[in-house]
Recover the amino acids of this structure.
């Protein structure tokens, strides 16, 4: 009986001509967008714990607003924004990704280099292709620095 009622209701249209299923889908989309905007707002908070939690949540989101947020970050926040930018990477963004990475000091003792290297290398997990210039740079800097430290 419930299935029949749902089917009948979902076929009925209201004044705007949309079925209940269509309206539900639209409501989910609006809710998702509001949640993303809320997380972006939290990621700009002065509260470090809240900001880090919001950034971690946004790392998994592919959305134009998240891309815009990542691109607005100053170079000093590169490490925090890099996963967001990579998740929302588009063809033509090669320089936007490569230049800030080249500005980071290569250091095996710090977390920055490891984080950057890992984020770029694992871009393929999201079926993204890391810029060849950046991969060559990472390889060269990592091998050279490692060789220098080994001897």
């Amino acid at each position: 009986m419930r299935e029949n009622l749902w089917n009948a209701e979902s076929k009925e249209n209201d004044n705007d001509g949309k079925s209940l299923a269509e309206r539900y889908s639209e409501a989910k989309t609006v809710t998702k967008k509001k949640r993303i905007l809320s997380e972006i707002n939290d990621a700009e908070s002065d509260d470090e714990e809240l900001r880090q939690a919001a950034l971690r949540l946004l790392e998994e989101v592919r959305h134009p607003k998240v891309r815009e947020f990542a691109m607005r970050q100053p170079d000093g926040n590169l490490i925090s924004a890099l996963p967001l930018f990579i998740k929302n990477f588009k063809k033509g963004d090669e320089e936007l990704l490569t230049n800030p990475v080249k500005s980071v000091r290569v250091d095996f003792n710090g977390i920055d280099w490891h984080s950057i290297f890992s984020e770029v290398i694992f871009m393929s997990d999201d079926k993204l292709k890391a810029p060849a210039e950046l991969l060559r740079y990472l390889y060269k800097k990592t091998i050279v620095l490692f060789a220098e430290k080994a001897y």
